[in-house]
Amino acid sequence: MRGDGTGLGERDWRSMRRSLRRLVVLASIFALLGATVPVASAGPASCERRNNNTIQKLLECVDVEGVREHQAAFQAIADANDGTRASGTNGYDQSAEYVAERMEAAGYDVTIQPFDFVRFTEVTPAILEQVNPPGGPIPNIVMSYSGSGDVTAPVTVVANLGCDATDFPATTTGTIALISRGTCPFAQKATNAFNAQAIGVVIYNNIAGDLNGTLGSTFALDIGVTGITQEEGLRLADLADNEGGLELRLVTDTLREPGTTSNVLAEKVGKNTDNVVMVGAHLDSVPEGPGINDNGSGSGALLEVAEQMAKVKPQNTLRFAWWGAEEASLVGSTLYVNTLSDEEFAKIALYLNFDMVGSPNHVFFIYDGDDSDAEGAGPGPAGSDLIEQKFEEFFESRDIPFKGTDFSGRSDYQAFILNGIPAGGLFTGAEGIKTAEEAAVPEWGGVAGEQYDQCYHAVCDTFENVNLFALDTNSDAIAYATLSYAMNTEEINGVPGKGNFKPGKQEIAPAA
User: Fold this and answer.
1) At residue 8, what are phi and psi to the nearest 5 degrees?
2) Which of 54, 223, 261, 348 has a beta carbon 3.0–4.6 Å from 324's, enabling a disulfide?
């Protein structure tokens, strides 16, 4: 009994607090859905009762309204928690609780995997100023996990992208290093600059648009690091190379501290317990905003697909994952893969990843498993090419154009492909700039010269920051691939599955 004489135990109080939070979330969901969301009509009334064990039945039931319900819940949670769902915050913990409760209600076996990580906070906005020749403030975005400092110094323009210690001349000592993005991680560039005794680092983009990067949660050096646009970077490099040089002031005010967060895993055991199909999306936002496209879109779509597959009896074991601390440099998914036993690791047939699938200025990107685009990193592990083809089948069936995108290492597929597990997935673009050619494609449209998501990693990544056509289409594509592989992975790893789910045997329902 509590000392206040109410007779309620701690478990009762926790239950009451959860119920109150649910009421607040539900009220916000109804307000959002009722007032602002033009969505397609819901699926058949029988969806709640039937076994969606064919592609056609599942696609009839997977609906953008269901995804938007989950996004509204994430928005309501962020609204109640200082506008964020970042790992290590109450906003994230309540998001994880929401996912776990929905999956438990749908009959899945749910596991919460807690882990420690390093939280990053920008205490006050970074300042970058052109001091000499006078030029005033320069727009910049501090790199996540940057150190703190207030320095004014000449600028050294670093050759060859700063990926090697020899790129930094002896004159780097006591200066601010100006480095182009490209080839190696930001942390490698910053570490090389620190070792060359630079007192600050400015990294400029190698494409148009802002540079919003992370040094990773293992970066602990006491040096300020910020990002600027390519245009600004080239302008500053030109000034620095002129007679008289360039002097900048860089102020970063940050906090790196221990935190705890979690992954949410939900499993449906199949007839073949030794063949596991994994489907994942990161659940956390950045500290700056609620993260409803990044990545409430992938997280919400996974929830909708999982709920509509609740009565399916899969041939293979199906495991959904909502990753924590992705924005802290893929911590949750990396920890998961690295802590699997050899026996459990060997069971994973493939991994599908969905990170940002409703970008407002979207392109339908499919991860380039076979490296047919010959850009960036090479192909994924054997079988990744077939996963790419699986998604291509879906888009071709809808007469919707698609485009390859590189395995750049920026999302949760990374730990899987580094360990040889075939992977694939969908993406609609982040801070990249839409080309005129892309905007001319009718099914993509949008605005050339602008970011795919102008609210990427920003406070405006809200419930309104979503393209419903992209989200609806990709939700169906996710359902198609997930059910297909839940029933048959023979083309990937030779494990026999249901014959009617072999490649070329499935009919894909047209869009409603």
Assistant:
1) -95, 130
2) 261
* Residues 426 and 391 sit within 8 Å (Cβ to Cβ): yes
Beta strands in 428-490 (DSSP E): none
User: Domains in the chain and their CATH numbers?
Assistant: 35-118+258-495 (3.40.630.10), 134-245 (3.50.30.30)
Choose, from 326, 327, 431, 438, the residue flagged as catalytic. 326
Q: Which residue has the higher pLDDT, 501 or 306?
A: 306
What distance in Å separates the CA atoms of residue 480 and residue 240, rounded to the nearest whole number? 54
DSSP state string for 61-86? H--HHHHHHHHHHHHHHHHTTTT--B
Cα(364)–Cα(477) distance, integer angstroms: 11
Taking the C-alpha atoms of residue 101 and residue 319, their distance in angstroms, rounded to an integer, is 16
C-beta separation of 22 from 95 below 8 A:
no
Is residue 26 predicted with pLDDT exceeding 70?
no
Q: List helix spans (H) across 37-142.
A: 55-61, 64-79, 90-105
326 is catalytic: yes
Q: Which residues are CB-neighbours of 336 under 8 A, at least 6 positions away?
A: 113, 263, 265, 321, 323, 415
Name the pTM for this structure. Answer: 0.85
Q: Could you report the per-residue pLDDT of 148-157, keeping only the tens digit for each?
A: 999 999 999 9
Query: Per-residue pLDDT tens for 212-227?
Result: 888 988 999 999 999 9
